[in-house]
Amino acid sequence: MEHQWSCSNCGYVVKGERPPEECPSCHQKCEFRDVSCYVPECGGPTSGNVDPRLVGKKD
Ligand SMILES: [Zn+2]
Q1: How many Cα neighbours within 13 Å face the side chain of 3?
Q2: pLDDT in tens for each of the 59 residues of the chain?
Q3: Contact 2/48 with Cβ under 8 angstroms?
Q4: From the CA of 32, how far away is ligand 1's center (Å)?
Q5: pTM value?
Q6: In the chain, how many domains are there?
Q7: Spacing, Cα 41 to ligand 1 middle (Å)
Q8: Ligand 1 center to residue 36 CA distance, Å?
């Protein structure tokens, strides 16, 4: 299953089964957070959407 990965450095979202080694946007080896949607509010796990609550979150 594909997940949505958000770069912890620049916030770029990449789609794939696992996070990339290097961010295609900022070219850093940063951590990627899984921001895939798992709730019906954004379309559910099969929608391929990101969860807006996770993408917008700063931690
Ligand atoms: Zn990045």
Answers
A1: 14
A2: 889 999 999 999 999 999 999 999 999 999 999 999 999 999 998 888 999 888 876 55
A3: yes
A4: 9
A5: 0.82
A6: 1
A7: 26
A8: 17
